[in-house]
Amino acid sequence: MDVDFDDFSSSSKKRRRTVSSRCGCKAKVVFKFDGLKGYNVLSFVEEHSHFLVSGSGKQFLKSNRVLGLAHKKLVFDGAKANMGPNKTYNFAKELCGSYSNVGATCTEFKNWSRDVKLYIGDRDAQMIIEKFTDKKEMSDGFFYDYAVDEGGRLTRIFWADVIGRKNYDVFGDVISFDSTYSTNKYNMKFVPFTGLDNYKKRVVFAVGLIAKEDIDNYVWIFEVFIKCMIREPKCIVTDQCPAMKQAIPTVFTEARHRLCMWHIMKKFNQKLAKCISKMDDFKRKINALIWSIDIDPATFEVGWKDVMKEYKLESNEWLCELYNIRESWIPAYYADDPMAGLLRTTSISESENSFFDKFNRRSDTLTEFYLRYESAMEKQRHTNARLNYEGTKTMPRMDTPLLLERDAAELYTRTMFYEVQSEIMSSCYDMSINSISEEDGVKIFSIKDKRRHGKIFEVILNSVFQKETWKNI
Predict the structure, then answer these.
(1) Who's near 78: CB < 8 A, 6+ residues apart?
(2) Neighbouring C-beta atoms of residue 29, cutoff 10 Å
């Protein structure tokens, strides 16, 4: 008979290799309770048909591989810190001193993690809603809302805790919103409402999960956000998502929509590298216009057209599109708008996504995602508490004898003080008053700024209204 070894080989690759521990061993001992004092040995067969387990092998016997409550808690707590069962098992070994002292193998750790996912199963969405209901009963300040489709499947959910809502009251004038991050096995998009605190650190006000990045979902989550926070922000910073562009003015009637400069600027090399030979020179000149906070819109527009003409880019479609929407991303058009530190910061949402990425995995259930989200929030708020402590227990070095600097050190957080200190130093050494004049009770100061290549600024002080305005010359 001819045998086709190729067929045999290909089929054997698909077959799972299994082993058996059965060897027909007759060794046994039988006891019988005598009903009064104890047990009697009825039968004893000593001979084994296999080798006995060695001392080092006892740890692998099924009877010695038991996952106790301590092990399960360790796996559960490790999961909240984004530690999988393998890493948790290795960590348990370090705690116990050796693998033999753990009391279980990595297989038991992985099996229990799997069993938790199976237990959650189809009840995942219901469990997270029940969790939020319990939190709402315990704290009236906790807010959540959700929506389901016709089949009863969860399609969007929003929540904000007490601390997040309080942070919004203080730091919520400018928020960053982004939805480019998938966080769970259902591919729902993570949409955090983020800002910067008084240490210029990320602070999350509220978050949501949406099934789709479309206008309907964005309108819903923006409406729920306003319902939760009561007031609108003054400015909302997003990427160039078309659905967001249409949804924001539908809900926000007062907030100004601004595009994230980081998302736009990172595309310059990708879009223009092929048509510009001297890319470094181009970027230097265009950055001087784009990032400047000293020029007015008219100056920017003239400078932009000059650069486009110099590099023969007047007909570049992408740059023409950016110029047409210049009022939504160029700082020259936001001179009078407080940007709360978001103007010269790289994408705060992108940074937030990177932060959350350390705590989450794309295979997470909703329940697992929320547990890890809470761990991430604990870390974020712990950092804030540490900075608050350090600010009250230490005093920064003073660089001038001015009382203004000392008052600033007591008033501002350490991060903000160093920026104020820099401005105080600059006013002492980099700026000089060229002239002072007065007309109808209005004082006019002519100021020369060495940091800006000797640029002259005119400061107008109206003592009647206590109002200062800045005008470029």
Answers:
(1) 84, 85, 87, 88, 91
(2) 10
> 269, exposed or middle or buried, with CB in 10 Å at 0-12, 13-18, 19+?
exposed
Average pLDDT for 306-312:
91
| Interstrand relation of 143-148 and 154-160 (parallel, antiparallel or unpaired) | antiparallel
Helix (H, G, I), strand (E, B) or coil at 469: strand
> Using CA atoms, how far apart are residues 248 and 268, in angstroms rounded to an integer?
26
Domains of the chain: 123-383 (no CATH), 403-472 (3.10.450)
Supply the pTM of this predicted model. Answer: 0.74
- Mapped onto helix, strand or coil, the DSSP state of residue 108 is helix
Assess contact for 247 and 220: CB atoms under 8 A. no
Identify the CA nearest to 195 among candidates 219, 218, 170.
Answer: 170
Question: What is the Cα–Cα distance from 199 to 345, expressed in whole angstroms?
Answer: 13
| Interval 75-91: pLDDT, tens | 767 766 667 788 887 88
Contacts of 407 (CB under 8 A, 6+ apart): none
Rounded-to-integer distance, Cα 236 and Cα 257, Å? 5
Structure-block tokens of residue 243 = 């659905």
Note the pLDDT tens digit of each residue in 214-248: 999 999 999 999 999 999 999 998 888 899 999 99
